[in-house]
């Protein structure tokens, strides 16, 4: 059972106090850490006396906060193990929830879009294509040949010659990242990651015993382009000689930064020099809102891609593009956990790929409008927030004037908007001054629901009410 030390929890809690009673603020903040994934369900919390000392309140306050969490079903006492934080039974994963959920809740914990319209016809055609596969056994550990070939062809057309044997179809990009971590990391290995970055990639590396080494990435503001700190990158490579580096060079999640060509080549050089396996996650690369889609990263890297953003997350189709030996090695690490990717969904993606460029024109046009609406409405309603201009991707990485992202997320939920606070995107609890705001919801919802709710929540920050019982998936 994972255990959180009092000092570790105090660090995650950050500046948790608000204007209300301390017991309520403490309980709310612990619950938020559970719901956004910074504290794992099933973890043992520190003893009351230890936490009281670490956060500077009385033991009675901690006891009352724990009692409150117990009452709401988030904490249970396990004999011999103390207080264990847990998602209440009946807690919802929100899996079938649209972006605008019943009851007016808008889910901005996910940077997503609904399915591209092309999917309906592609699914019908794929059902026909499936007939040819039915005589086979259907276990596709590497991927169905037609999809591997179509993905290889797309990489080749975009300037990265690729053979079908160099493609491994996975259950989404997250699965691909997890598989690569299992295949190429040993406990104790250093893993270079971006900060802020995609939290589930860091979780995957940690899950196999990897030790994250964070390098900073910033969102552009005004005239200052955002991006990777080259010196910090070089220093991190030289100092830690990471076994693996995980980077998102095309519209990085959550900053939207794009890695310039010269830095891409420099990173390849560094990885070669220090014996680092370079993994580039290009899940959001196709969502170029102001210019052409960035070309694929140079060939030396292991590329991860996904149909989730350009077509639909519900397909659960992603892939790895690497040399054939790497593909085979990664595929060999599937079998203890699962036995391949469903055939029908692969056929749907194979049907969509020839039309993907047209799909992207529509999708990016829609996203561009939504980004512009959200940026303009935020500028008008919350001029004190620093809203970057992002050239692509699905989210704005907004800088707040105060370190109140978690309090704001709690307050926003009361006003019907679910948010992931900034610290979830940091490696060790930084970014309380930042908020990721996805712009996948339609323009009307952003204008009439999201921004007014954010403005109300911002005004309320410091006087927040208890949050309900939800588990959210961040994508
Ligand atoms: C950078 C990045 N990688 C991976 C994923 C997960 O992709 P998938 O749904 O294909 O598993 C996301 C989803 O937001 C993402 O932004």
Could you explain how this protein is built, in words?
Helix 10 links the parallel strand 8 (244-247) and strand 9 (277-281). The protein has 475 residues and is of the alpha/beta class. The strands form four sheets. It has an eight-stranded mixed sheet with strand order 4-11-10-9-8-5-6-7, with helices on both faces. A two-stranded antiparallel ribbon has the order 1-2. Strands 3-13 form a two-stranded parallel ribbon. The chain has 15 helices and 14 strands. The protein has helices at residues 6-13, 22-35, 48-55, 59-71, 118-130, 145-157, 173-184, 199-207, 230-240, 261-274, 324-332, 343-352, 356-381, 405-414, 443-460, and strands at residues 75-78, 82-85, 106-108, 167-170, 190-195, 211-218, 227-228, 244-247, 277-281, 302-306, 318-321, 395-399, 417-419, 434-438. The radius of gyration is 22 Å and the shape is globular. The longest helix is centred in the C-terminal third of the chain and has 26 residues, at 356-381. It is 40% helix and 13% strand. It folds into three domains: 6-85, Winged helix-like DNA-binding domain superfamily/Winged helix DNA-binding domain (Arc Repressor Mutant, subunit A); 102-116 and 363-460, Aspartate Aminotransferase, domain 1 (Alpha-Beta Complex); 118-357, Type I PLP-dependent aspartate aminotransferase-like (Major domain) (Aspartate Aminotransferase, domain 2).
Helical region count? 15
Principal-axis shape: globular
Would you give the CATH topology of the largest domain?
Aspartate Aminotransferase, domain 2
Please tell me the overall pLDDT.
Answer: 91
Which H/E pattern describes the elements? HHHHEEEHHEHEHEEHEHEEEHHHEHEEH
Give the spatial strand order of the biggest sheet: 4-11-10-9-8-5-6-7
Number of strands: 14
The CATH level-2 architecture of the largest domain is identified as 3-Layer(aba) Sandwich
**Class computed from helices, strands and strand pairing:** alpha/beta
Biggest sheet descriptor:
8 strands, mixed
Instruction: State the low-pLDDT regions, or none.
Output: 92-102, 463-469
Bound molecules: pyridoxal-5'-phosphate
CATH superfamily heading of the largest domain: Type I PLP-dependent aspartate aminotransferase-like (Major domain)
Helix content: 25-40%
Ends apart, CA distance between termini: 26 Å
CATH class of the largest domain: Alpha Beta
- Number of domain units: 3
Strand content: 5-15%
The gyration radius over C-alpha positions equals 22 Å
Family: In the C-terminal section; belongs to the class-I pyridoxal-phosphate-dependent aminotransferase family.
GO molecular function: transaminase activity
Protein name: PLP-dependent aminotransferase family protein
Organism: Kineococcus mangrovi
């Amino acid at each position: 059972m994972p255990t959180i030390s009092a000092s570790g929890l105090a660090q995650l809690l950050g500046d948790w106090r608000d204007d209300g009673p301390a017991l309520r603020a403490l309980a709310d903040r612990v619950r938020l850490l559970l719901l956004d994934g910074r504290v794992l369900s099933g973890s043992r919390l520190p003893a009351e006396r230890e936490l009281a000392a670490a956060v500077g309140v009385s033991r009675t306050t901690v006891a009352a906060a724990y009692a409150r969490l117990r009452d709401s079903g988030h904490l249970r006492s396990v004999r011999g193990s103390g207080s264990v934080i847990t998602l209440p039974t009946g807690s919802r994963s929100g899996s079938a929830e649209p972006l605008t959920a019943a009851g007016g809740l808008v889910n901005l914990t996910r940077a997503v879009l609904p399915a591209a319209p092309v999917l309906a016809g592609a699914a019908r055609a794929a059902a026909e294509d499936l007939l040819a596969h039915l005589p086979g056994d259907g276990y596709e550990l590497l991927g169905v040949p037609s999809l591997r070939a179509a993905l290889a062809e797309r990489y080749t057309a975009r300037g990265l010659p690729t053979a079908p044997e160099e493609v491994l179809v996975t259950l989404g990009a997250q699965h691909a990242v997890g598989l690569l971590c299992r295949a190429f990391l040993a406990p104790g290995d250093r893993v270079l990651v971006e900060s802020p970055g995609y939290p589930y990639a860091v979780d995957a590396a940690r899950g196999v015993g990897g030790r994250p080494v964070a390098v900073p990435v910033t969102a552009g503001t005004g005239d200052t382009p955002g991006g990777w700190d080259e010196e910090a990158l070089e220093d991190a490579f030289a100092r830690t000689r990471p076994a693996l580096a995980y980077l998102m060079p095309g519209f990085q999640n959550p900053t939207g930064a794009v890695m310039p060509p010269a830095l891409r080549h420099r990173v390849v050089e560094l990885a070669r020099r220090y014996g680092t396996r370079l993994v580039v996650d290009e899940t959001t690369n196709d969502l170029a809102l102001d210019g052409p889609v960035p070309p694929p990263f140079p060939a030396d890297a292991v590329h991860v891609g996904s149909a989730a953003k350009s077509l639909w997350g519900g397909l659960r189709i992603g892939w790895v593009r690497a040399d054939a030996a790497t593909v085979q090695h990664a595929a060999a690490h599937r079998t203890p956990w699962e036995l391949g990717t469903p055939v029908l969904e692969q056929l749907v993606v194979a049907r969509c790929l020839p039309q993907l460029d047209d799909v992207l024109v529509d999708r990016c046009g829609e996203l561009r409008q939504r980004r512009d609406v959200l940026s303009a409405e935020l500028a008008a309603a919350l001029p004190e927030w620093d809203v970057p201009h992002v050239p692509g991707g699905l989210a704005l990485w907004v800088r707040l004037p105060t370190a109140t992202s978690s309090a704001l997320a709690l307050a926003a939920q009361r006003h019907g908007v679910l948010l992931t606070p900034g610290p979830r995107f940091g490696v060790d609890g930084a970014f309380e001054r930042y908020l990721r705001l996805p712009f996948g919801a339609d323009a009307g919802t952003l204008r009439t629901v999201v921004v007014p709710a954010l403005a109300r929540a911002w005004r309320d920050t410091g006087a927040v009410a208890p949050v309900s019982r939800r588990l959210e998936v961040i994508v």
